[in-house]
Amino acid sequence: MTYLRSGIFLAPFHSLDESPIMALERDMELLQHLDRLNYHEAWVGEHHSGGFEIIASPELFIASAAERTKHIRLGTGVVSLPYHNPFILADRMVQLDYQTRGRAMMGVGPGSLVHDAKKQGIVPANQRRMMNESLDVIIDLMKGETITRKTDWFDLQDARLQLPPYTRPRMEMAVAAARSPAGALAAGRHGIGMLSIGGTTHESMTHHAGNWDLYAEQCKLHGHVPDRKNWRLVTMMHIAETREKAQANVKHGLDNYCDYYRDVATFPLVPADVTDRLGYMLNSGMVCIGTPDDAIAFIERLLKGTGGFGVIMELAQNWADWEQTKRHYELMARYVHPHFQGTREWRNDSYEFARVHHEDFISQSHAAIKAEIDRLAEQRRLAGE
Hints:
alpha/beta
């Protein structure tokens, strides 16, 4: 069985009626909680408008989170390349690589919110082209190359990083891949990872499998070896002790989340005329809201539908209240992740071996104890003679 790593994708999503200070602090507490639960990684998003996704600089957030955590790896999920000069961004990410002692990862994309781009005078139709231009530069800079390159949005003259990457040959990188093929093409061209964030409906799974084929094709074309362990798939989940409890939990924030996607984000998750949003999401295969066993079956479906990937990424959606959200992650870590990481099999084998031989072992133990008692009795008898 392939070892499946665990992670989250933290946009984040926060209701408009709560304190942004408390919301950001809770995001930080979440990463600390996941660190204790042995989640492998967390990816933090970049957004600048819309009011719901309120982390503007994933690098700043990661730098702070790295000081409060011990083990979890932390990635930009994603930094929007058209919004930044590639030389300055590469320099900042190398600094983050040093500050985290190699726990930082760099996820990149073109930027998902049109209003973010518009506010900077960026034409949305140019974003994927700009992403590729920037990524080409960043990859070369992290190789230690000196770059002189001019486009319609940046002008680099003898640009060279002053520090080599802390992680050699460079920090782990990935490209967001959703509906457009641009992400798969860019990731494959450079032989870096792919972050699939386009949902997990039955239709989406077909799309993801097609993106993997495109990625693998590009890898081979450019001399790279495609490896499914570098593929991350983002999905939406909430589990509890029972299905009824899980469904009751998500009523806390599901409507706010769906409203945001309907009103502000790139595309609605649920059609406007659907009144039973939860039922629609469950029936479409978009989400898993149930028990740990349901989560295992759900992830098995995703693995089968894609042919396999390396990391299951849960979208941190804040559907449930804080206590039930933490409980969800605890249940995932205790009962779901071990199923995909092979951490229970040896224990089960050991238990089964001891069970099967229990009577024999007990009889041997009793015989050993009796022999010791008899030996002591004999010593006393001889001493009394």
